[in-house]
Design goal:
Shape: globular
Bound molecules: methionine, zinc ion
Distance between the termini: 73 Å
CATH architecture of the largest domain: Alpha-Beta Barrel
CATH topology of the largest domain: TIM Barrel
Helix content: 40-55%
Radius of gyration: 27 Å
Largest sheet: 7 strands, parallel
Length: about 775
C-alpha cells in the first residue's frame, strides 16, 4: 500500500452505453449472432478507451486513480456476480466464455429463466438479482477487472476499478429456490468477504492502487435489515477487508441517500476513503462542529458528493463550494465528487443542438458534471478566487433560469394554491358504487392494462411521420385504423372493458411531455434502464400546463366504435415526474400538483366526450418512495394527494382505475388505499397471487385486479392456469370487487401470443363465474 491519496477530483462512475448507444448496437448484434465475441470485445474496449480519454480531457487527472473503471456490458450487480463466482447452480456447469455465462444469467436461454430484474434503489435502473443459497460456490474471478485496468494503463491512464461492495451485494440478493427455509443471503457475508479479500489481492498484484466498493445499502431503510444493522455489517466486512495484507486502497461509496448518521463510524473504518452523497444527504452538523468527524477521518479522505448525479441541472457551484469549505475548514482531507455514478444522466448537453439555447444553458449532463467537479477541485487547490469567474457564471445562469418566461407562471401557481382537500375528495365509495351500477360491469370483469402490441408497422409509421415522410393526416388515419382493429379484436375475444390500445404513444411519459407546456424533449439524452435498453427522459423545466386536450380524440373515436365501455388512459403525476428529469428549484410536491391539474382537465374533457371509465397509471408510485424512512410519510402524502387532485373532479358515475405494476405491496398498501381509485390493477401472476393475502387482511374494499397473465414473457398461459389464479383470488376477494386482467400493458408482446393469452383469460373468467 504505497499508493498516494486520491486526487482532489473524481466521479463515482460514467455512462457506459456510449454517446450514440454504441454498446446497445454491439451487444444486440452479438446476441443476434451478427458479430463475434472478439468483435464485441473490441467495440467495448474502444468505448472504454474513449470514456477514459474523455474524462481526462474534461479535467480528471490521468494519474492517481481519479478515473473510475465503471464499464459494464449489462449491469454492475451482474458484474459482481461474475467477479465473486456466484453462478446459481440452476444454470448448470458453465460452458463457453465468461461472457457467455454472463449473458446467459442476464437473459436466460431455452432451458433457463434469466435472473430476475428489479429496480436499483430509488432509480429507474434495473439490476439482475443475485440468487444465493447455502451452497453457492463463491470463487474470486478478477479477470475482467484486471484486464480493464491493464487496458487503461496501456492508454496511459491509471484507473480505479469499481465493484458493488459485499454487504450491498448480499442485501440486494434473494435466496435461491434451492435455499433452506429461513436462509438469508446475508448469512453468507463472512464467506463472501473472503472472496472480496482474494479479489483485492489479485488487483493489488496487478498494480491497482485504489478500488471503489459501492455500498448504497448504507442509506436505505427499504432492505431486509435495519440501517443500523447494515452499518454493523459494513463494519464487520471492512474490518476484515481493511486488515487484509495485500490490497489496494479502498474507497467505500454511499450514494443515493443520506449517510450523515453513519459518517463518523464510516470514517473510523480501516479504509482510506469514504464517499458521502451530499445532494440527497447532508453532513452531520454536530460531529462536524465538535471535531469528532474530523477525528474519525484522520488519515481517511472524504469524497464529498456535491455534484448531483441524478439530474441534469447545472450545479450551484457557490453552494457546493461552501459545503466543501466546511469540510476543509474542519481539517478533513476532502475530494470533490458526484453524489452517485453518472450512469443515470445522458452524456453531453453539447449534443442537444435542437434544444432551445436558453434552456440548454441551464443544463449539465455527465460531461458537464465532470467539468463542474474539476472546477470545484481547482477551487480547493488554488483558493476560491481562482474559480470566482466560474462561480459568477453559474450565479448568472441560475438567476437567468429563475427569471425566464415559463419557469414561474402566476395563473398556474394560483390555481395550485387555490386547490384544497375538496378538490382531492370524491363522494363516498358507496355513492360511487351506486352511481356506477349504470356501467353494467359484470362480476369478475375482464379488461387489459391499456397498450396493445406496438408492432413494427406502428413503429415504422411513427418514424415516417417524425421524419416528415408522411403527413399528419396520413399518420392519424393509420392510428385510427389501428384503434378500430384493436377494438374489433377485443370484442371478438369477449373482453368487458375495452381500451384503445395506445398505438399513438412512443412512451407513456414522453407522449404527455410532448403535449404539455413546461417540458422539453432531448435528442440524444439516453439513459440506461436495463441491459441494452435505454430511455430518453423528458426535461420538466417550467410550470406545467395543458394547452389542449391530449388523448380525447383517440378515446372518443374508440368509444364510438363499440357499445362496451372504453377506458380513457392517462399516465399519473407521480409517474410523469419519476420518469422525467424534474426541475430542482421547487419541491416535487408543487410540480406534481401542476401536472395533476393538467390531468384533471384532461379527465374532464374525456368525460365530456362520453368516456365513463378513466385509468390513471401510477407504476412509479413505489419507485419514488424515499429510501429514508423519515421522508416516506411526507412523500406518500404528496404523491397520493397529486393522484387525488388529478382524479378528484370526476363525478360519482365515472369509474377511476389505476395501475401499479409490481407486487411488493406491504410498504405502500395504505397509500394504495389512499389513492381512492375505484379499481386498481396490480402485478400478481408470477408471485401466484401472493398479494391477495395482504389485500384480504387489509380489508380492501374497492375493485382490485391482480394480474393473471404474466406479460413479461412470450409464454401463453393456459385456461387452467389462469382459472386457478382467479380461484385463488376469488377465495379471498368478493366477485363484485375482483377484476380479471394481465399484469401490465401488452406493448412489448406480439399479436399471436396476446390473442391466445387473452382468449384464455376470458375463458378462465367465465369458468370461475360459472362456479359462483
Ligand atoms: C408500465 S405500466 C404500463 C401501463 C400502460 N397503460 C400500458 O398498458 O402500457
Ligand atoms: Zn404496468
Amino acid at each position: 500500500m504505497t499508493a498516494a491519496p486520491l486526487p482532489q477530483a473524481t466521479i463515482l462512475g460514467y455512462p457506459r452505453i456510449g454517446r450514440r448507444r454504441e454498446l446497445k448496437r454491439a451487444v444486440e448484434s452479438f446476441w443476434a449472432g451478427r458479430i463475434s465475441e472478439p468483435e464485441l470485445q473490441q467495440t467495448a474496449a474502444q468505448l472504454r478507451a474513449a470514456t477514459r480519454a474523455r474524462l481526462v480531457e474534461l479535467g480528471l487527472p490521468a494519474a492517481g486513480a481519479a478515473v473510475p473503471e465503471s464499464f459494464s456490458f449489462y449491469d454492475q450487480v451482474l458484474d459482481a456476480t461474475l467477479a465473486v463466482g456466484a453462478i446459481p447452480s440452476r444454470f448448470g456447469a458453465p460452458t463457453g466464455s465468461d461472457l457467455d455465462t454472463y449473458f446467459r444469467l442476464a437473459r436466460g436461454d431455452a432451458e433457463h429463466q434469466p435472473l430476475e430484474m428489479t429496480k436499483w434503489f430509488d432509480t429507474n435502473y434495473h439490476y439482475s438479482v443475485p440468487e444465493i443459497d447455502g451452497e453457492t460456490g463463491f470463487a474470486a474471478n478478477a479477470t475482467a477487472l484486471v484486464e480493464q485496468f491493464r487496458e487503461a494503463q496501456e492508454q496511459g491512464i491509471e484507473t480505479r476499478p469499481v465493484l458493488v461492495g459485499p454487504v450491498t451485494y448480499l442485501l440486494l440478493a434473494k435466496a435461491s429456490d434451492a435455499a433452506a427455509d429461513g436462509f438469508d443471503p446475508i448469512d453468507r457475508l463472512d464467506d463472501l468477504v473472503g472472496v472480496y479479500a482474494a479479489l483485492l489481492e489479485a488487483l493489488a498484484a496487478a498494480g491497482v492502487s485504489w478500488v471503489q466498493l459501492d455500498e448504497p445499502a448504507l442509506v436505505s431503510d427499504s432492505l431486509r435489515v435495519t440501517r443500523e444493522e447494515t452499518l454493523g455489517l459494513v463494519e464487520r466486512a471492512y474490518a476484515v477487508l481493511g486488515g487484509a495484507g495485500t490490497r489496494p486502497r479502498i474507497l467505500i461509496a454511499a450514494p443515493y441517500g443520506n449517510s450523515a448518521a453513519a459518517l463518523t463510524r464510516l470514517g473510523a473504518l480501516p479504509v482510506e476513503a469514504v464517499h458521502a452523497d451530499l445532494v440527497r444527504g447532508s453532513l452531520p452538523d454536530a460531529a462536524l462542529a465538535d471535531g469528532s468527524l474530523a477525528q474519525a477521518f484522520a488519515g481517511t479522505q472524504l469524497v464529498a458528493g456535491v455534484v448531483d448525479g441524478r439530474n441534469i441541472w447545472r450545479t450551484d457551484l457557490r453552494g457546493a463550494f461552501a459545503q466543501l469549505t466546511q469540510l476543509t475548514d474542519a481539517g478533513i482531507a476532502t475530494v470533490v465528487g458526484t453524489s452517485n455514478n453518472l450512469q443515470h444522466v445522458p452524456h453531453d448537453v453539447r449534443d442537444e443542438t435542437k434544444l432551445e439555447g436558453r434552456l440548454r444553458s441551464w443544463l449539465a449532463f455527465a460531461d458537464q458534471k465532470v467539468e463542474q467537479v474539476a472546477i470545484l477541485a481547482r477551487g480547493l487547490a488554488e483558493g476560491a478566487a481562482a474559480i470566482e469567474p466560474e462561480l459568477a457564471e453559474v450565479d448568472r445562469v441560475l438567476a437567468d433560469r429563475d427569471a425566464a418566461p415559463g419557469v414561474h407562471s402566476d395563473p398556474i401557481r394560483a390555481r395550485v394554491a387555490a386547490s384544497g382537500d375538496d378538490d382531492r375528495t370524491r363522494v363516498t365509495e358507496e355513492d360511487r358504487r351506486a352511481a356506477q351500477q349504470d356501467l353494467g360491469i359484470p362480476h369478475l370483469a375482464t379488461t387489459t392494462i391499456g397498450s396493445f402490441p406496438q408492432t413494427p408497422e406502428i413503429r415504422k409509421a411513427r418514424a415516417a411521420f417524425v421524419r416528415g415522410e408522411i403527413d399528419e393526416a396520413a399518420y392519424e388515419g393509420f392510428l385510427r385504423e389501428e384503434i378500430a382493429s384493436v377494438i374489433r379484436l377485443q370484442e371478438e375475444i369477449g373482453l368487458d372493458v375495452l381500451v384503445h390500445g395506445e398505438a399513438e404513444r412512443n412512451d407513456m411519459v414522453q407522449y404527455f411531455a410532448e403535449l404539455l407546456d413546461g417540458f422539453a424533449v432531448t435528442e440524444h439524452g439516453w439513459v440506461q434502464s436495463y441491459g441494452s435498453r435505454a430511455t430518453r427522459p423528458s426535461i420538466l423545466w417550467g410550470d406545467v400546463s395543458r394547452p389542449a386536450p391530449m388523448t380525447v380524440r383517440w378515446s372518443e373515436y374508440a368509444q364510438s366504435l363499440t357499445d362496451r365501455p372504453v377506458k380513457g388512459m392517462l399516465t399519473g403525476p407521480v409517474t410523469i415526474l419519476a420518469w422525467s428529469f424534474v426541475r430542482d428549484d421547487q419541491p416535487l410536491s408543487d410540480t406534481a400538483a401542476q401536472v395533476a391539474l393538467a390531468l384533471r382537465d384532461e379527465i374532464e374533457d374525456l368525460v365530456d366526450a362520453g368516456i365513463t371509465i378513466v385509468q390513471v397509471d401510477e407504476p412509479a408510485l413505489r419507485e419514488l418512495l424515499p429510501l429514508d424512512r423519515d421522508r416516506q410519510a411526507a412523500y406518500l402524502d404528496w404523491s397520493v394527494g397529486a393522484f387525488r387532485l388529478a382524479t378528484g373532479g370526476a363525478r360519482a358515475g365515472v369509474q377511476i382505475h389505476t395501475h401499479l405494476c409490481y407486487s411488493e405491496f406491504g410498504e405502500i398498501i395504505d397509500a394504495v388505499d389512499g389513492l381512492d381509485a375505484d379499481v386498481t390493477s396490480i402485478e400478481a401472476a408470477r408471485s401466484r397471487m401472493d398479494v391477495v393475502q395482504p389485500l384480504g387482511d387489509h380489508g380492501y374494499s374497492r375493485g382490485i385486479g391482480p394480474g393473471v397473465y404474466d406479460i413479461h414473457s412470450p409464454r401463453v398461459p393456459g385456461v387452467d392456469e389462469q382459472t386457478e389464479l382467479i380461484r385463488i383470488a376469488a377465495a379471498r376477494i368478493p366477485g363484485e370487487q375482483l377484476w380479471v386482467n394481465p399484469d401490465c400493458g401488452l406493448k412489448t408482446r406480439g399479436y399471436d401470443e396476446t390473442v391466445a393469452s387473452l382468449t384464455n383469460l376470458v375463458l378462465a373468467a367465465k369458468a370461475v363465474r360459472a362456479e359462483a
